[in-house]
Amino acid sequence: MREIIERAQGGDAEAFTLAVAGSIDQLYATAYLVLRDRPAAEDAVQDGLLRAWRGIPGLRDPARFDGWLRRIVMRAAIDSSRSRRPTVEVTFEPADPARAEQAVADRDLLDRAFARLVPLHRAILVLRYYLDLSVPDIARTLDVPEGTVKSRLHNAAKAMRSALGEVDRPDQDGIRP
Prior knowledge:
With 177 residues, the protein is mainly alpha-helical. The protein has two domains: 1-86, Rna Polymerase Sigma Factor, Chain: A, CATH 1.10.1740.10; 96-177, Arc Repressor Mutant, subunit A (Orthogonal Bundle), CATH 1.10.10.10. Helices cover 70% and strands 0% of the residues. It is built from nine helices and no strands. Helix 4 (38-55) crosses helix 5 (65-81), helix 6 (100-116) packs across helix 9 (146-168) and helix 7 crosses helix 9. The longest helix is centred in the C-terminal third of the chain and has 23 residues, at 146-168.
């Protein structure tokens, strides 16, 4: 892989395509979880890949390519979210039909709460709980100190708990939002 990345750093577009090919699905899934909108996620991945292509000559350590690429796409998704209003899309098929109604209700509750979070909170939760990255890995991905990651995780979890409480409470008319 190192050789492919070094070729890409030299301007070989085909090598760059090979280097990113295995990551596209995960990059898209991460961007989608942050943006909550398929076309916006596709655009963010495309923007991130373009940024990566332009910036690859400056990559100092080819062994860190995956984290570097993930960080660029995550930043592109966060940048995109600043100009977009998030949308909610529920697609879920539980394995046990007997619990289907409750599973859909739970998933809807989580989706609505997640949509209420600011993009930075969604991003940190996606990195930690969807991609299962450790605090040091998240710190490298976002290029911030580990203490900042811990603080952001704490604040994001607190915001998620609050958002869950808000979407679970009926409004004045007794209707849930």
